[in-house]
């Protein structure tokens, strides 16, 4: 073990694991928890050692150490100070010099792109319009996603009034928060089940991603949005049949323009059955859908899916936030989609090329503002609901997103963080020590669906409480009243251009 | 009666249940002292069996209603408390391992250590102590240590039929 | 209703406790020819070795009889049973009435007709009294007026369970011991050759002389005191104590004229009842079912005595329990070599399959014996004994082991190796 360490190809490890030997009881809990081969027990010395180069900084070991004797320190500050050639740049470059490969990563971009949420502030009522206390008065977060009619016709027969207009199918959400697409394969069965359980429990939806739906999870179908992606993995009539809605995945914020990639090691027996591909084979979904080269083609697929589901289920189309997002969204809505989902540049992934994740696409906030505005201007905003994804971190982000024009948000990273993920960004290795982004049965057991579902539900409960507080503060008693109400937002420290794109006034400007 | 039932599907073989059991059965009830200082070293009364990777289960005494260990014990050390727990009276136990042989769950451990001292008849300096050691359901706690320590809610402390 | 129990050991106590569960009020009488309240017979070697004090010999505490409202007659022998009159006859001619009788008189040491066996310092080793006598001899200082005591050298005849225990006890208090065994190995009934050898080597390492395939034909001496033995091959060994530990046989002598059916032991049915209604037998004295061989035979071990007693007691007092059978098993530890054996350990005939792991260099040995894909026996020596009970359970339940046969020898063999359903059945349900 040590010999191989003597010659170091320059990779410049990121973390150093310190262990307080006076406290360490050699229980080896840390050794068993580390899935990256960083920690080992030397029986001869009766001591625990670390190969620091292998540590990914996931904090699994120190969370589990029963004597709190592990400290993980970030190293890199010891490189010669340089704004240009910092440790990040040097490390990445060396990795490539070692292997000749594309840099891979996981989760959402960690680059300092401007986070617009943090430059937007929310209004509150003072004197002239009273605020509402959500603990004392009802507060409605219920949200319906789907096409709304341009007008409604009412019929009166024998004194009974009823709706004559036939409404398009809707998704009913108790909270305006859904779990974003995470495919079985990228995450394991236990996490899929937990997401489904939490969605059912909270009256919202989870999303299969492009990995199909395991048969055992059909029972959660009414809280599941099923995806149809370019690889068409696991897509069949039953799959569409059990779902609450169908989502066509065109693109993903973390990797606009490229397809999905699930390495063969992650394609276990069960994954292969669900995806309907051979076990152990790489699951590569093509960059484009090979049957979609225009809005017309997309329309065909949308209607094919509606046809297949008896026009009983809304069809969503998900795209990555790119420069032309507004126009594309308009086309999607006109093509018949009931929901448009837009995934921003900070959107998460199980695996993506680093250069693409960090540099391709635009922030979700800007795309959202533009899409909402465009659809309004075209008078078709009611034809589809808009769902925003990629970079929602807390309840205030959601309040701002809804005021900017979203009907609901998708979250992925927050759901995973709630069950242990420390955003170490090593999902693509399939060795997730927290048992999330891995199909290794040894690691997958680390997620007890019961606990995970409870934690995710707690998160949504907490967030909905906070949303209600903020709504009440604005004197609103329903999330409906905030939707697209940009007047309740102000920008801080943003340029005129940015404000214009966001459709916001700067803080300090009155009504 | 309430005992500890494992749910193997979510056991991740971390063995924190063992650490907790050892701590609970130490004199100091302090993990570091229990492992590093105390002589004799306390034993865990639950055993995490494992086939690496992917299968593990923490096994401890079932407090059988018709306990083979009790009938096998030649000294009467293994006995049932009025609350139903099957426990060892360490003063009586001689370490004959009849109970180890009888327990169909392999839930009894041999606890052996040396102490300074005299045998009953003055001989045997450095006496070898042999005691059987098994789950006592943590009488000082309302929730057993292993149950509370398990990070993945594997262990259920409940009554079943 | 009057319950009478002859004997005051594992089977008797098991029965008395079971009776008291069903019937709190009617008289229960226990008669024993030993003076002690119930003690652990297997502990006599520990007492000899000085490993336990007298107060740790007792199986139940002082108030046991009082708390359970049990009348006792100690230090009195029963000399016969009149099943017609429903009376037990005591050595002092007293008669005790009963409605239900349990015979739990255990075993009595078998003493072969060796010349000189009547000499004074020749003992058997099954009772507290035996241990007490031997302790007296080993602790009395040498060179007293009488010139006896302070024994330095003992010969133990028989290297079975009890013989080995006697050797261990004597050895622990510094007596030089030679053990003579007729068979070619020590513990030949409980172990196989390889396992026996590990134990034997360990004994020899400890300084004990082990003579096998030989026998004592005469105990020689001056006056009534033994001073040596002569072996079949004419070899002479000097000694000042002889212990005969050839074996025990069911203690049924006093029942000869009673009409109670006796074969090798007292014949009982699955309720532990004898051919005479209302008369039960349990423990070493009884001949009950061996579930492995399907035969009825006495299996003189504590756990079965206790269980049979409990079943008899329940049935005597209105219960309805069935004895499903047992099998021999034993845990013996000669210092440093813990040994557990169970069931058939020396398979003869067709259809057996053995898995063996022999690590005798480190004093570890494991052998599992199967028939028809079920475990019928096992021998475990050294650290491999740790989870022996799992095997006991598999034998008892006659679980087919086909699916995990190849794992049986693993040091860590356990529940993870069982099929999932079976494992969950065992671990996730109440037992
Ligand atoms: C030295 C030694 C070590 C042993 N070690 C082990 C061991 O490690 N594990 C194990 O499983 N087993 C062991 N055994 C065997 C175990 O002790 C017996 O199986 C068990 O004691 C049987 O119990 P029992 O109640 O059937 O009879 P016993 O224990 O034999 O008791 C019978 C009682 O009845 C009394 N009695 C007999 N006849 C009469 C009469 N006519 N009138 C009045 N009273 C009478 C006897 O004096 C005795 O007190 C050992 C035995 C000995 C001798
Ligand atoms: S978990 Fe903590 S106490 Fe246990 S071996 Fe690791 S560092 Fe030491
Ligand atoms: S130690 Fe074993 S035999 Fe005794 S009660 Fe517990 S599980 Fe049952
Ligand atoms: S080891 Fe102790 S508890 Fe177990 S049977 Fe022997 S004396 Fe009883
Ligand atoms: S219940 Fe208590 S004694 Fe039993 S295994 Fe758990 S921690 Fe140990
Ligand atoms: S603490 Fe829980 S998860 Fe860890 S080994 Fe024990 S039972 Fe399994």
Question: What order do the helices and strands come in, and which of them pair?
Answer:
The complex is a heterotrimer of chains A (511), B (161) and C (431).
Chain A (H helix, E strand, L loop, with lengths): L1 H5 L8 E5 L9 H5 L5 E4 L4 E4 L9 H5 L5 E5 L12 H13 L4 E2 L14 E3 L20 E3 L8 E4 L2 E4 L7 E3 L3 E3 L9 H14 L3 E2 L16 E5 L8 H6 L2 E5 L11 E2 L6 H7 L7 E2 L10 H14 L6 E6 L4 H10 L4 E5 L8 E2 H6 L4 H14 L7 E5 L5 H10 L3 E4 L1 H6 L22 H4 L4 H25 L15 E3 L4 H7 L2 E2 L5
Parallel strand pairs in A: 11-21, 12-13, 13-14, 14-17, 17-18, 18-20, 20-21, 22-23
Antiparallel strand pairs in A: 1-4, 2-3, 5-19, 6-22, 7-10, 8-9, 15-16
Helix pairs in contact in A: 5-15, 9-11, 12-15
Chain B lengths: L1 E5 L9 H9 L6 H6 L10 E5 L3 E5 L8 H5 L5 E3 L5 E3 L9 H5 L6 E7 L11 E7 L11 H5 L5 E5 L2
Antiparallel strand pairs in B: 1-8, 2-3, 4-5, 6-7
Chain C lengths: L2 E4 L3 H13 L5 E4 L12 H6 L14 H4 L2 E4 L4 E5 L4 E4 L4 E3 L2 E4 L3 E3 L12 E2 L4 H12 L13 E5 L3 H12 L3 E5 L12 H13 L3 E3 L4 E7 L2 E7 L4 E3 L2 E4 L3 E3 L15 E2 L11 E3 L4 E4 L6 E2 L4 H15 L12 E6 L2 E7 L8 E8 L4 E8 L2 E8 L6 H9 L23 H8 L4
Parallel strand pairs in C: 1-2, 1-7, 2-3, 7-19, 9-16, 10-11, 10-16, 11-12, 18-20
Antiparallel strand pairs in C: 4-5, 5-6, 8-17, 13-14, 14-15, 20-21, 22-23, 23-26, 24-25, 25-26
Helix pairs in contact in C: 1-7
The structure holds flavin-adenine dinucleotide and iron/sulfur cluster (SF4) (5 copies).
The site of one iron/sulfur cluster has 13 residues of chain B, from α3.
Verbal overview:
The complex is a heterotrimer of chains A (511), B (161) and C (431). Chain A is an alpha/beta fold and 511 residues long. In chain A, 30% of the residues lie in helices and 16% in strands. Chain A has helices at residues 2-6, 29-33, 60-64, 87-99, 189-202, 237-242, 269-275, 295-308, 325-334, 354-359, 364-377, 395-404, 413-418, 441-444, 449-473, 496-502; strands at 15-19, 39-42, 47-50, 70-74, 104-105, 120-122, 143-145, 154-157, 160-163, 171-173, 177-179, 206-207, 224-228, 245-249, 261-262, 283-284, 315-320, 339-343, 352-353, 385-389, 408-411, 489-491, 505-506. In chain A, the strands form 8 sheets. Chain A has an 8-stranded parallel β-sheet with strand order 11-21-20-18-17-14-13-12. In chain A, α9 packs across α11 and α12 (395-404) crosses α15 (449-473). In chain A, 49% of the residues are buried. With 161 residues, chain B is of the alpha+beta class. Chain B folds into 2 domains: 1-60 and 137-161, Alpha-Beta Plaits; 65-134, Alpha-Beta Plaits (2-Layer Sandwich). In chain B, the strands form 4 sheets. A two-stranded antiparallel sheet of chain B has the order 1-8. Chain B has a two-stranded antiparallel sheet with strand order 2-3. In chain B, β2 (47-51) and β3 (55-59) form a beta hairpin. The longest helix of chain B is centred in the N-terminal third of the chain and has 9 residues, at 16-24. Chains B and C meet through β1, β2, β3, α3 and α4 of B and α2, α7, β22, β23 and α8 of C. The structure holds flavin-adenine dinucleotide and iron/sulfur cluster (5 copies). One iron/sulfur cluster binds next to α4 of chain B.
């Amino acid at each position: 073990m040590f010999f191989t360490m003597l010659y170091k190809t320059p990779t410049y490890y990121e973390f150093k694991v310190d262990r307080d030997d006076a406290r360490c009881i050699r229980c080896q809990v840390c050794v068993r928890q580390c899935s990256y081969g960083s920690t080992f027990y030397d029986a001869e010395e009766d001591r625990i050692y670390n190969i620091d180069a292998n540590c990914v900084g996931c904090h699994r070991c120190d969370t589990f150490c029963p004597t709190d004797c592990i400290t993980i320190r970030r190293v890199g500050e010891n490189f010669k100070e340089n704004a240009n050639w910092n440790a990040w740049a040097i490390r990445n470059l060396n990795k490539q010099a070692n292997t000749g490969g594309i840099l891979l990563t996981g989760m959402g971009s960690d680059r300092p792109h401007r986070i617009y949420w943090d430059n937007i502030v929310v209004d509150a009522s003072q004197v002239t319009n009273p605020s509402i206390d959500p603990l004392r008065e009802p507060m409605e977060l219920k949200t319906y996603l789907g096409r709304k009619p341009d007008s409604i016709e009412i019929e009166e027969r024998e004194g009974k009034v009823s709706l004559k207009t036939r409404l398009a199918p809707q998704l009913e959400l108790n909270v305006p928060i859904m779990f974003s697409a995470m495919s079985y394969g990228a995450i394991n069965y236990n996490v899929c089940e937990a997401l489904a359980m939490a969605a059912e429990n909270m009256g919202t939806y989870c999303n299969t991603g492009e990995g199909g739906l395991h048969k055992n999870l059909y029972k959660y179908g009414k809280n599941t949005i099923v995806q149809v992606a370019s690889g068409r993995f696991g897509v069949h009539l039953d799959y569409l049949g059990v779902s609450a809605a169908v989502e066509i995945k065109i693109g993903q914020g973390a990797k606009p323009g490229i397809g999905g990639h699930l390495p063969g090691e992650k394609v276990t027996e069960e994954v292969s059955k669900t995806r309907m591909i051979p076990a152990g084979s790489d699951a590569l979904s093509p960059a484009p859908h090979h049957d979609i080269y225009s809005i017309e083609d997309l329309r065909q697929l949308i209607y094919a899916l509606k046809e297949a589901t008896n026009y009983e289920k809304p069809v969503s189309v998900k795209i990555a936030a790119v420069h032309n997002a507004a126009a594309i969204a308009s086309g999607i809505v006109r093509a018949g989609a009931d929901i448009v989902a837009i995934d921003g540049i900070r959107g998460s992934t199980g695996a993506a090329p680093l250069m693409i994740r960090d540099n391709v696409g635009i922030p979700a906030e800007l795309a959202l503002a533009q899409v909402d505005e465009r659809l309004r201007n075209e008078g078709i905003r009611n034809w589809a609901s808009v769902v925003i994804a990629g970079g929602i971190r807390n309840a205030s982000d959601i309040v701002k997103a809804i005021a900017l024009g979203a009907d609901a948000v998708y979250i992925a990273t927050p759901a995973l963080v709630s069950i242990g993920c420390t955003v170490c960004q090593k999902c693509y290795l399939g060795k997730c020590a927290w048992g999330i982004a891995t199909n290794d049965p040894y690691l997958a057991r680390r997620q007890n669906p019961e606990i995970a579902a409870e934690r995710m539900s707690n998160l949504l409960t907490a967030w909905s409480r906070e949303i209600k507080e903020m709504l009440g503060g604005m004197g609103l008693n329903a999330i409906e009243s905030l939707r697209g109400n940009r007047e309740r937002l102000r920008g801080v420290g943003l340029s005129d251009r940015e404000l214009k794109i966001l459709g916001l006034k700067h803080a300090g400007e009155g009504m | 009666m309430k005992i500890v039932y494992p749910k193997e599907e979510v056991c991740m073989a971390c063995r924190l249940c063992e650490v907790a059991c050892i701590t609970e059965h130490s004199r100091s009830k302090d993990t570091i002292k229990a492992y590093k200082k105390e002589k004799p070293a306390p034993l865990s009364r639950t055993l995490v069996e494992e086939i690496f990777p992917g299968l593990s289960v923490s096994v401890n005494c079932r407090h059988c209603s018709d306990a083979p260990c009790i009938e096998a014990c030649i000294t009467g050390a293994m006995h049932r408390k009025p609350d139903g727990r099957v426990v060892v009276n360490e003063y009586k136990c001689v370490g004959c391992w009849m109970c180890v042989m009888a327990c169909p769950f392999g839930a009894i451990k041999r606890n052996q250590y040396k102490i300074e001292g005299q045998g009953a008849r003055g001989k045997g300096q450095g006496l070898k102590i042999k005691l059987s050691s098994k789950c006592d359901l943590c009488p000082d706690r309302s929730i057993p240590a292993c149950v509370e320590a398990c990070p993945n809610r594997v262990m259920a402390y409940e009554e079943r039929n | 209703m009057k319950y009478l129990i002859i004997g005051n050991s594992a089977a008797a106590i098991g029965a008395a406790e079971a009776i008291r569960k069903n019937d709190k009020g009617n008289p229960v009488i226990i008669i024993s020819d030993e003076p002690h309240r119930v003690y652990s017979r297997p502990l006599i070697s520990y007492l000899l070795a000085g490993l336990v004090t007298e107060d740790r010999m007792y199986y139940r505490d002082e108030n046991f009889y009082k708390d359970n409202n049990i009348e006792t007659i100690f230090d009195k022998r029963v000399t016969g049973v009149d099943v017609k009159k429903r009376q037990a006859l005591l050595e002092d001619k007293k008669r005790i009435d009963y409605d239900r009788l349990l015979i739990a008189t255990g075993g009595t040491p078998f003493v072969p007709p060796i010349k000189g066996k009547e000499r004074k310092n020749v003992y058997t080793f099954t009772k507290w009294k035996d241990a007490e006598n031997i302790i007296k001899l080993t602790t009395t200082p040498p060179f007293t007026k009488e010139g006896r005591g302070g024994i330095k050298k003992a010969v133990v005849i028989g290297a079975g369970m009890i013989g080995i225990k006697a050797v261990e006890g004597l050895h622990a208090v510094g007596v030089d011991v030679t053990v003579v065994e007729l068979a070619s190995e020590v513990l030949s009934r409980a172990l196989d050759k390889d396992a026996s050898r590990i134990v034997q080597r360990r004994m020899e390492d400890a300084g004990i002389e082990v003579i096998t395939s030989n026998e004592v034909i005469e105990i020689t001496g001056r006056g009534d005191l033994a001073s040596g033995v002569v072996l079949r091959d004419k070899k002479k060994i000097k000694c000042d104590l002889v212990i005969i530990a050839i074996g025990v046989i069911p203690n049924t002598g006093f029942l000869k004229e009673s009409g109670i059916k006796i074969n090798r032991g007292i014949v009982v049915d699955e309720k532990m009842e004898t051919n005479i209604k209302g008369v039960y037998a349990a423990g070493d004295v009884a001949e009950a079912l061996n579930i492995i061989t399907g035969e009825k035979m006495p299996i003189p071990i504590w756990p079965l005595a206790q269980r049979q007693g409990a079943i008899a007691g329940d049935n005597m007092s209105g219960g309805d329990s069935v004895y499903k059978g047992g099998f021999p098993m034993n845990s013996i530890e000669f210092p440093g070599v813990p040994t557990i054996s169970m069931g058939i350990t020396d398979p003869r005939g067709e259809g057996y399959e053995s898995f063996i792991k022999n690590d005798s260099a480190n004093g570890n040995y494991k052998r599992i014996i199967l028939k028809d894909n079920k475990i019928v026996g096992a021998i475990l020596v050294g650290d491999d004994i740790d989870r022996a009970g799992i095997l006991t359970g598999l034998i008892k339940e006659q679980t087919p082991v086909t699916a995990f046969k190849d794992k049986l020898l693993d040091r860590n063999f356990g529940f993870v190796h069982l099929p999932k359903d079976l494992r969950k059945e065992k671990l996730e349900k109440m037992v």
